[in-house]
Design a protein that fits this description.
By secondary structure, the protein is of the alpha+beta class. Helices cover 42% and strands 20% of the residues. It is built from 7 helices and 5 strands, in the order αααβαββαββαα. The termini are far apart.
Length: 206
């Protein structure tokens, strides 16, 4: 029996389709970054060894939203941030926390076990409720490496658009441009872009 690895694009596509079908609705189902690598493997851009190497050097990301059980004052927010920053430095975790009208949105990234353990603890924290995982999985590298935990406020409407884009199949945020630098950093972290602006008028037009 021939156990050779698939070599043609058709064979690679069939192998990936089979693997994805076998893991659907399980913890092993590929997420955004893993799907990107598998697509490059199917097209012959990467070998399976290169896919494995990229996954081995990747970081684990979690993005979630939740609702505060009581409104947070500025002092309470800073206390929460100080706790997070001390913990994250010790465990090599980086990320961003956004607060909007009683809702939290937080991105975490770092070693998979450390991020999973932290997120499990966050889900049990009584200071918030309705914790919803927006995205979780591997990423090529860190996007918040300079921050043990960045922080910002955001408008609810723009924040909702960003979360919908992260969960959706299209890597673009529809609608008017988002200018908030924190939200733009969040979009970049999850590979989401803004639509191109209208074409510039031709010379002499008007």
């Amino acid at each position: 029996m021939d156990h050779a690895l698939p070599t043609t694009e058709i064979q690679r596509r069939r192998a990936v389709d089979w693997a994805v079908a076998m893991t659907v609705n399980t913890r092993l189902a590929p997420h955004r970054y893993e799907r990107q690598l598998l697509a490059r493997y199917q097209q012959g851009e990467l070998t399976i060894d290169q896919v494995i190497e990229l996954l081995d050097t990747s970081v684990y990301q979690v993005l979630y939203r939740s609702r505060a059980t009581v409104p947070f004052s500025d002092d309470a927010l800073w206390q929460l941030l100080e706790e997070a920053r001390r913990f994250n430095v010790e465990h090599r975790i980086s990320g961003m926390l956004l607060y909007s009208a009683g809702y939290f949105v937080q991105a975490l990234e770092g070693p998979e076990e450390a991020v999973r353990d932290l997120y499990a603890s966050i889900q049990q924290d009584t200071r918030h409720t309705q914790v919803v995982t927006v995205s979780a999985g591997q990423a090529a590298d860190r996007h918040f490496a300079g921050w043990s935990m960045a922080f910002g406020h955001a408008t609810t409407s723009d924040l909702d658009r960003v979360l919908v884009a992260v969960q959706g199949p299209r890597p673009v945020v529809p609608g008017p441009a988002i200018e908030d630098p924190n939200l733009l950093a969040l979009l970049r972290a999850f590979g989401i872009g803004m639509p191109a602006g209208p074409p510039a008028p031709a010379a002499g037009a008007g």
